[in-house]
Amino acid sequence: MYEPIRTKSVHTSADDADFPHRSREDALDIQLAGHLAALLAVTDELGLTAMGDRIAEQVARLRAAPPARHAGRSEASPAALHRRAHALAGRALVVAASRADTAVAILAAEAMDAHAAALAAPAAPTTAPTALVGAP
Question: What is d(CA 83, CA 104) in angstroms, rounded to the nearest whole number?
Fold first, then answer.
C-alpha cells in the first residue's frame, strides 16, 4: 500500500553535517565579546581610559586577541553616549550572568553605575554666571 521512503528525511538531525558546530558557551563568549567591544568603543569616545583598559582586557581574554580601540568621534552628546554605554553594559551583564563570568559581571555592573551616575549629575553651565547688579 505504501512505498518505503528511499531518501533521507528532511526531519533528520544535522549532526553529521560538514559545518562546524558551536557550543552554547562559545556562542555566549562571542555575544559577550561583541557587547563588550561596543561598550569599549563608547567608553573610548567618552575618554574614560581606565575603564576602557579594563574592558579591553576582558575582550582580549574572550577573543584571544587584543581589540581594536575606537579612533573616531561621533557627533553624539555626552548624555547620549552615557545612555548607550549604560544599555550596552546592561546587555553585557545579562550575558555575563548567564555564562557565570564573575569578572565581566562585576565590570559591567560598575560601568552601569558609573554611567548612571554621570547621567544623574547636573549638567555644567554652558555660560559663565553673570554678576548680580548691585552686588559688591
Answer: 19
Closest Cα partner for 61 from 103, 106, 21? 103
Q: Give the H/E segment covering residue 83.
A: helix 78-98
- Buried/exposed code over 9-48 (b: 16+ C-beta within 10 A; e: otherwise): eeeeeeeeeeeeeeeeeeebbebbbbbbbbbbbbbbbbeb
pTM reported for the whole predicted model: 0.75
Mean pLDDT by 10 residues, the chain (136 residues): 68 62 88 96 93 96 89 84 96 96 97 95 57 52
- Assigned C-alpha cell, 113: 553605575
Strand, coil or helix: 120: helix
Residue 129 and residue 66: Cα distance in Å, rounded? 46
